[in-house]
Design brief:
Elements lengths: L1 H11 L14 H8 L41 H35 L15 H30 L6 E8 L2 E6 L4 E5 L32 E4 L3 E8 L4 E5 L4 E5 L5 E6 L6 E7 L11 E7 L1 H10 L14 H6 L6 H7 L1 H11 L1
Parallel strand pairs: 1-5, 4-10
Antiparallel strand pairs: 1-2, 2-3, 5-8, 6-7, 6-9, 9-10
Helix pairs in contact: 3-4
Bound molecules: copper (II) ion (CU).
């Protein structure tokens, strides 16, 4: 019933011509995805636990059932913001709210008509006026200072170790690593039995991540390194958001927005986010998956994606040419130097 409702909703939105093939979901393709080694003609098997397919820890990087508050933070900016929120903002607004409530209740009770038949005629009290002007000003200053400090830290990125260009589309993300020549799309993984799944399509299982949050391809980042995000969109405004990184930035067409993260060196794992700008009918179906691995695993992943590591030099460079132009390795050269190793690993990923 739920699935039929789902199909009707999508079909009504005029989004899924493929919904018509609902009955075609065969148990065979399910079996193929569940046991990848068996019989998958098109795609190479996915090895869960390998780089790019690490199994997420349900306690970190995703929403927790029954919890409130901020997701566990794993970046320096996240720690600073979380500390500011937990140690200063929340206690402060709690004290102010309780104070106002008590004052209101006390005034209503103590100065009600029955208890206070002749009201005071005072219209000025200098001491009180100075206090009620000065105290709010001091409170605001005490919020502004740490707040502006946090903004300054957020907007003064250290030199980047890795740059990732993020492009939002209706309704998926593209991740590019310009320094490594790696680029790919990331789409939501549909649920098993989804009427829009085509035969042989991969569907989500719990090793990919929670429902509506798991994507087929993950952005992989090295832990402990400064990562610069260049964020844009190619159709409408999207928003790139990963709560555990304290990252949320609009992706505007025709404009590059920049932010950065540095995930704590000991916080490898999978982190989930979503598009956070209302971008259209399938806004809720473009999750962001970031897998944080060790720097060595990151290099391994880049190679597996057919990318080029910056250190990689062409096998033989003529001495004269090298002297004439002492340039860092060209992407093309290095690509040519190592096609064999790359292909093998790339198939494992795809
Ligand atoms: Cu979007």
């Amino acid at each position: 019933m739920k699935l039929i409702g789902w199909a009707i909703a999508l079909a009504a939105a005029g989004l899924t011509p493929a919904a018509a093939q609902a009955p075609a979901t065969s148990p065979a393709d399910n079996a193929a995805a569940a046991a990848p080694a068996a019989a998958t003609p098109a795609a190479a098997p996915i090895v869960y636990g390998s780089v790019g397919h690490q199994i997420p820890n349900p306690k970190i990087g995703m929403p927790q059932a029954g919890k409130i508050g901020i997701e566990e933070q794993v970046t320096p900016i996240g720690h600073e913001a979380e500390h500011f929120h937990d140690i200063w903002l929340m206690p402060l607004i709690t004290v102010i709210s309780i104070f106002v409530l008590v004052l209101l209740a006390w005034t209503m009770f103590r100065y009600r008509r029955g208890a206070n038949p002749t009201p005071s005629r005072n219209s000025h009290n200098t001491t009180i006026e100075v206090i009620w002007t000065l105290v709010p000003v001091l409170i605001l200053v005490s919020i502004a200072i740490p707040s502006i400090r946090l903004l300054r830290h957020q907007y003064t990125p250290p030199p980047a170790d890795v740059t990732v260009k993020v492009t939002g589309h209706q309704w998926y993300w593209t991740y590019e690593y310009p320094d490594y020549g790696v680029s790919f799309d990331s789409n939501i993984l549909k649920e098993k039995g989804d009427p829009t799944l085509k035969a042989g399509d991969r569907f989500r299982n719990d090793n990919d991540g929670p429902p509506l949050l798991a994507a087929d391809e993950r952005m992989v980042l090295p832990a402990g390194k400064v990562v610069k995000f260049i964020i844009t969109a190619d159709d409408v405004i999207h928003s790139f958001s990963v709560p555990a990184f304290w990252t949320k930035l609009d992706a505007n067409p025709g404009q590059l927005n920049e932010t950065w993260v540095k995930v704590d060196a000991d916080k490898t794992g999978v982190y989930f986010g979503q598009c956070s700008e209302l971008c259209g009918a399938r806004h809720g179906f473009m999750p962001i998956n970031v897998e944080v691995v060790t720097p060595a695993q990151f290099q391994q992943w880049i190679v597996s994606k057919g990318g080029t590591l910056p250190g990689a030099k062409p096998a033989a460079a003529p001495a004269s040419a090298a002297a004439a132009q002492p340039q860092p390795a060209q992407a093309g050269d290095a690509n040519a130097a190592k096609p064999a190793a790359t292909n093998q690993a790339a198939t494992a990923q795809n």
